[in-house]
Design goal:
Elements lengths: L1 E2 L2 E2 L2 H7 L5 H10 L6 H9 L2
Antiparallel strand pairs: 1-2
Length: 48
């Protein structure tokens, strides 16, 4: 998966994102623009 954060590793793209609940996905869509690095995104996922 490619986006503004670059290439997402397969474990993030296929496993972690797809396992989020709809409420978490709603929050992710709001928070996504605040991420500056892939590490920011990984930290967000770790807090889910």
């Amino acid at each position: 998966m490619v986006g503004f954060l670059g290439n997402l590793p397969d474990d993030i793209a296929t496993t972690r994102i797809k396992s989020l609940e709809s409420s978490q996905l709603d929050i992710l869509t709001e928070d996504l623009l605040d991420f500056e690095t892939l590490d920011d995104f990984n930290q967000w996922l770790s807090n889910c």
